[in-house]
Amino acid sequence: MIANNKGLGRGLDAILSDFKEEDILKEEQQKKNSSTFEIDISLIDTNPNQPRKNFDDLQLRELAESIKNFGVLQPILLLKQQNGRYVIIAGERRYRAARLAGLQSMPAIVRELTKQQVMEISLIENLQREDLNPIEAAYGLKSLLDDFGLSQEQLSKRIGMSRPNLTNTLRLLQLQPEVIEMVRAKRLSAGHARALIPVTDPEIQIQMAKKACDEKKSVRDVEMEVKLYFNRKNIQKGPREKEVQSRELKAFVSDLKRVFGTRVKIKGSDEKGRIMIDYFTPDDLQRIYEMIDFLKANLGAK
Predict the structure, then answer these.
(1) Residue 79: helix, strand or coil by DSSP?
(2) Which one has a higher pLDDT value, 68 or 251?
């Protein structure tokens, strides 16, 4: 297995205090003498919009054993429905483990929140955990964008995720369905998958993904294979003058690739040349334009 998923987003500490579980607890303490309620587990339902779809069985069993010995140390967050039942906003792992441990009830804080707030908190709670699958994160982000008409800039501020990180996570959904499933199944890392996004030929992209899995290729190996693929497609006519570029200029190109999340080339040398930023769809072009516009605004450019 070559997947190596890093945590996404900055977690609850970077979010508006309205969405922080610890602050919610303090708020409830101010409103009521007791900060938590013991809620019958049979009245609690999971959230159908929960970004995380897969829960590790071993980790759940370990957490259940801990709950048997010490109880549920942190209350879960619930939304009360009109029918008297509750939906989990944050804490589904604790809920599942509590059921495994045989608990009949568990501590919870009950809040009144909008549908958008529920989805944001559910996503934030999962983003702060390093084992969240990047495809689950991407679908969660896309749901917030589509359902509530948010721009990427608005969403990045709401959930505390940097704009480039958010954009690169969403770009994973441009992959072929077979490749997306490889990432979801942790056969392929997000880094490997992102390297394949420029390959728009479906069959070639899937072949490269399968080859990366079977041969346990590194991300760098996949990037080189993609580069060779495009070099073969774009055979240049006639000899070209060799361009000498310094180490600093090459590092600058690498930084641009990371920021814009796409292929960037510099034609020329340290003295003069051209910067070329590739885009592969109209949405890609719009994304790059928005990023440049954002950078200009933050740099005070006119």
Answers:
(1) strand
(2) 68
Residues in the chain: 302
The C-alpha atoms of residue 16 and residue 166 are separated, in whole angstroms, by: 18
pTM beyond 0.90: no
Closest CA to 89 of 20, 156, 171: 20
- Give the separation between CA 150 and CA 160, rounded to whole angstroms: 14
| 33 alpha carbon, distance to own chain's centre | 38
Q: Which of 22, 38, 62, 92 is catalytic?
A: 92
Q: Is 92 a catalytic residue?
A: yes
Phi, psi of 268, rounded to the nearest 5 degrees = 135, -155
H runs (alpha helix) in the chain: 21-31, 57-70, 92-100, 115-127, 134-148, 152-159, 163-171, 177-184, 190-196, 202-214, 219-233, 247-260, 282-299
Helix axes 202-214, 177-184, angle to 10 degrees: 30
- For residue 258, what pLDDT is reported? 80
